[in-house]
Amino acid sequence: NHLLNIGKKKDKFMKKRIILNILVAVMLICALAPAAAADEAVLNRHIADGTCGEGLSWSLDGYTLTISGSGAMTDYSAQASAPWSAYAGEIQEIVVKQGVTRIGSNAFAGCSALAGIEIPVAVTSIGNGAFNNCNRLAHVFYRGTEAQKNAISIENYNTSITDAEWIFETA
C-alpha cells in the first residue's frame, strides 16, 4: 500500500512537471511571436526618403536603402552628413539603381549593419570614405564584369568595399 502511494505521488509530480514545461513553452512562444511580427513590420515599413544629388533620390524601406535616378550622388562630410545617417546603424542592404554614376564621398560611412550592396555598371567612381566603417559588408552584387569593376575609380578609406566579395552579374 505504501509503495502504491509513492507511485501515485510520483505520477502526480510528473504530470505537474509536464504541465509546467508546456506552460513555459507556450509563454516563450507568446513572448517571441510579437518580436518576429515587429521585425516583419519593419521590413515592410517606409521610413524616410529625399534627394541625394541632382536627379537622384533615396528611400529607406525597412532595412534597405535604395538610391535611384540619374547622375552623381552628393559628396558628404562630417559637417554635412548623408540624409540617411540617422539610420546608418540599421541599414543592412543598399540598392543603387542603374543610372547612378558616382557614389559620393562618405555616402554610406558608418553603416555598421550593412551586409550587402547592389551596384550597377553605370557607377564609374566611389568617393573618399564612401564605405568607411562598414565593417560587416560582406557582398557586393555588381551588375557588370570583373573588367568593368576594375575600371571603377575607388578613392581612399573604402577598405570595407574593396575587401568584400564581389559577385558579378552580366545578364
Counting helices, strands and paired strands, the structural category is alpha/beta
Could you tell me the strand content as a percent range?
Answer: 25-35%
Tally of contiguous helical segments: 3
Overall pLDDT metric: 86
Strand order of the largest sheet: 1-2-3-5-7-9-11
Q: What's the SSE pattern?
A: HEEEEEEEEEHEHE
- Helix amount: 25-40%
Rounded Rg: 25 Å
The general outline is: elongated
Largest sheet report: 7 strands, mixed
Low-confidence stretches: none
Work out the number of β strands: 11
State the end-to-end CA separation.
81 Å
Q: Overview of this structure, please?
A:
The structure is a single chain. The chain has three helices and eleven strands, in the order H-E-E-E-E-E-E-E-E-E-H-E-H-E. It is of the alpha/beta class and 171 residues long. The strands form two sheets. It has a seven-stranded mixed sheet with strand order 1-2-3-5-7-9-11, with no helix packed on it. A four-stranded parallel sheet has the order 4-6-8-10, with no helix packed on it. Strand 1 and strand 2 form a beta hairpin. The model has no long low-confidence stretch (mean pLDDT 86).
